[in-house]
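Q: For a teaching session next week I want to show students how multiple molecules come together into a single three-dimensional assembly. I've collected the sequence lines for a complex. Could you give me the predicted structure tokens for the whole thing so I can convert them for display?
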Amino acid sequence: MSITTQDSVLIPSAEAAAERGPSQRGMEIATAVVLMAAGGIGMMDSLRIGAGWGTDGPQSGYFPFWLGAILALASLGNLVVALRDHRRGARGPRFATWGQLALVAQVFVPTAIYVAVIPLAGIYVSSAVLVAYFMRRFGEFRMVTSMLSGAAAALVSFVIFEIWFLVALPKGPLETALGY
Amino acid sequence: MEEIQLLGHGFAVALQWENVLLMVAGIVLGVLIGVLPGLGGANGIAILLPLTFTLPPVSAIILLSCIYWGALFGGAITSILFNIPGEPWSVATTFDGYPMAQQGKAGEALTAAFTSSFVGAFVAVVMITFLAPLVAQFALQFGPPEFFAVMFLSFACFIGLARGSPLKALAAMMFGFLLAGVGMDGVTGQLRMTFGSMELMRGIDFLVVVIGLFGLSEIFQSIEEGLRFKGARARITLGTVLRTWAELPRHWALFIRSSLIGCWMGITPAGATPASFMSYGVARRMAKDKDSFGRGRMEGVVAPETAAHAAGTSALLPMLSLGVPGSPTAAVLLGGLIMWGLQPGPMLFVEQKDFVWGLIASMYLGNIVGLIIVLAAVPWFAAILRVPFSIIAAIILMVCAIGAYTVNSAEFDVVLMLIFGVIGYVMKKLDYPLAPLVLALVLGDRTEESFRQSLLLSEGSLAVFFSNWLVGGIMTLGLVMLFYPTLSKLWAPRMQPA
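A: Of course. Below is the structure for the complete assembly, covering every listed component.
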């Protein structure tokens, strides 16, 4: 029983990328503003449905109104903290480098496409393509290996979910053609 | 000693062969989940929860809680061998665990970690066995104001004990509460914050949020860090185990201290992660040669692992006895109880004896089974990390999508999962804590319900929360916890020696 030492580089390191990127401070400000807006929206919608005391007790908006208010206030506090942070510009800390964000985008974009395609092609075909794409793109596997692995992953999940657990997952034209 | 008898009955339930099988399956799955990046206790359980509807509740909770124990064990493997904490609570284990592995003592480090985990969990389970029924008994006299006060207290603890900015913890929590409010108001049938969307009428399911926040965001983060796995050599032979076990009793005081820290941090919803750091810090501070910590000390592995497991386990105490979970994973389990049609809270101990005691008995058994499995199968679990990340990442994304879909059979939920993946990624990078968000989302409805019922009782007066010594006491304690950071700042200058 032993594990051999092995250095395996799994995906390209971000070290080579330039050290520039969006600032931590900017992201803090943006997040605080978004959360403040969320609190505001919650308050407005609660006022619309009534945030006071009705004939039968507290109205539906009562509880969410105050939650929205606390969220807006706490975010205002976070905003002030971020604005008073003077480590701005090029000297301030980065949220992430552009190189890192590019790496994240390389995963996020295919995932977003995958999610968008599920209603059209069904989850099994989309998953097979996703697995094959990742293996080919990031793992540099051969095309045939990637495609076969993708198909295998889809087939295994089909057996587990549709046959064992009897959970119906989104299906597309291919499954319909096969009689499912 | 009624507990002993009930526990014996629980063992009879847990030892049914199908439950034992589920236990083993749960532990193995859990260790896998703990080892893989992008899957953790909370979202692993969230993904599997919809698949457990066909099981009886007690079998379902045994399976899911064993996944939790497995994930707690699994985190240590990657920390020690690869210097990658598989779970946030095993970060502190890397400090001394990885240096030990580099010195060729990986087997000793792993044995110490697993054994400490076991000890921590065992202490916590014993505590649950005897304390939980008492707490539940006490809580039977709670009315809506008291329940609201208990929830207020646990949310206040989050803010007061937050490791980062209390304002960020507060914002995350309120965001979670607002998300819980989306959909139909259970009392009046009024639609809230749906903005005319049919999809939002169903509400935002916490399982979908958990899968996005903890699963997808972790994949994004792992990619960003440019994952590079450097494995250490590990050999666990019977000799290593016995040699390490012979050495461990020397650290008995450390075990007791770390277990206590863990139990305390688990019951108050601070959770396993701060418990492991605190325990490591205390062990280091109390050691004679502080400088040897971080270079491969056995104590540096024992302290965080004992505390993390004790905290992770005792987080189930308030979940079972009060219906207030102590950690995100416990919150997901609580969501499971509701979905299986059980009403969490003190009545569980009265009405669902089989369920409660079957679960408690399975905690004893599950941890013993877990210890044996991880000691025997470490090399295989570690080998998983040598599967290229390109394959693992795609498969985890697929599993997350399937998990999100199965919650309500809704394609919109998969989109929500993706959105929360991005939200989780940004929040983690900006140090917004995710745990309060999840707890608020799970408890939102019940908190609001008890709040509204209390106000109905008092006809709108907030004085109801201070109307008797019990509710007033809990509320006051909550306020103290809430302003703890401010209070401790006020006191600190006076307490420093002149």
